[in-house]
Amino acid sequence: MAYELLIRGGTVVTAEGVEVADIGIEDGRIAEVAGEMSGGRGPGTQEIDARGLHVFPGVVDAHVHFNDPGRDHWEGAATGSAALAAGGGTVFIDMPLNSSPPVLDGASFDAKLQACEGRSFTDFALYGGLTPVNLDSMEELAERGVAGYKAFMCPSGIDDFQWSDDVTLYRGMEIAARAGLPVLLHAESAPILAALSAASQGSGEGPGAANAGAGGAPTAVRRFLDSRPVIAELEAINRALLFAEETGCRIHVVHITNRRGVELIRRAVAGGRVDASAETCPHYLFFTDRDMETIGARAKCAPPLREEDIRRGQIEALLAGEIDTVGSDHSPAPSDMKDREDFSTAWGGIPGAQTTLRTLLTVEIPPERIAAVAAQNPAERFGLAGKGRIEVGYDADLALVRVDTEAELTSDELRDRHRLSPYLGRRLCGHVERVLLRGREVDDTPRGRFLRPADARR
Ligand SMILES: [Zn+2]
Known about the structure:
Elements: E1 5-14, E2 17-26, E3 29-34, E4 46-49, E5 54-57, E6 59-64, H1 77-86, E7 89-94, H2 106-116, E8 123-126, E9 128-129, H3 138-144, E10 149-152, H4 166-179, E11 183-186, H5 190-200, H6 220-227, H7 230-247, E12 251-253, H8 259-270, E13 276-280, H9 282-286, H10 289-295, H11 308-319, E14 325-326, H12 335-338, H13 356-362, H14 367-381, E15 398-408, E16 427-437, E17 440-441
Parallel strand pairs: 1-4, 1-5, 6-7, 7-8, 9-10, 10-11, 11-12, 12-13, 13-14
Antiparallel strand pairs: 1-2, 2-3, 5-15, 15-16, 16-17
Helix pairs in contact: 4-7, 5-6, 7-8
The structure holds zinc ion (ZN).
């Protein structure tokens, strides 16, 4: 009996290492992984010659803002997931805030699920929100099958998604702990940001004055950078770890920009005090504050891009296994909000769902680390059973990638709605040749399924 699909001779990448092997696929799942499969089970009814290609587990992007329903003119599940798939992704988990309404209760969850089903080209899970107005609905969200709760420790940029004061956050974590679900944190300290932002509205003699623009006053980019320093992240991470310890809530701190922030988490975890994990984003590994100055608003994000030594430290943290996951934080906006002359009012968010894998290859992260942080770890952390590994019994979600090639990123190849990537014109390594979702090549038919986390207590 032949496998329904046999992938021949690819360099199979797992978190443990790489080896040339054949992959037999049956009913959309991986049935066998073996060197030079032959005899009884081969050849497959259908075969893909993967010699010369790396076979990665499909990217599990646990941090995207696809904004459906209600704000799909910014991005939508169809365009966002098409971009993700084009970049080797097979699963996304969508943040609750940019849709309208935001996902704060059962009804808004249902609206988002309906918007994504039948539109998504990849499988997906959904987060709910943890905000001052919806603590009473968190249990309802757990029953619907959210993968976790997102909370902001500073203003979110979306008026109808409020940030969590300490009491809200603490109570929310107690509820999340009872539901067995993690809380995802945008960890920047609101009081620190508020104080610095007020200072930077002043005479230009604030912390940014040393980096003056041509006219003597700090540039808008510098003022932004100075208003969101590393200490704002560190203070918020520390406070979140304390609350997590007290409540027994699992936490996942998203988009950490710097190794010191990561180390706070590693120390707390090593001390056995908390169950916490750390995410960073490709743009913190690739770009620096200088790029924010030269590229402008397309490279605006929060927390902001950091100095070169901090970027390098973050890569070292990733190589050392201190960072658990890499998520794109894909957060696009229409060009009238993004490509503005006035940097200070431009939307902060970088569209990157399509470029995660290539960015990681470009900054020379070894394939097995990529498999860990971009597929296996996020799938495990958010309870997505059968996802994130190339192993018997797992879904055949695979990205076939030519790694020994590089090219400039062009707008033609981007699949997201607005194609305002800060990576345009940059040379990126790797080329994604084929992407399989549950054993079938991703094509023009949206076949994405909703994934309910397996390990929540409910
Ligand atoms: Zn985000």
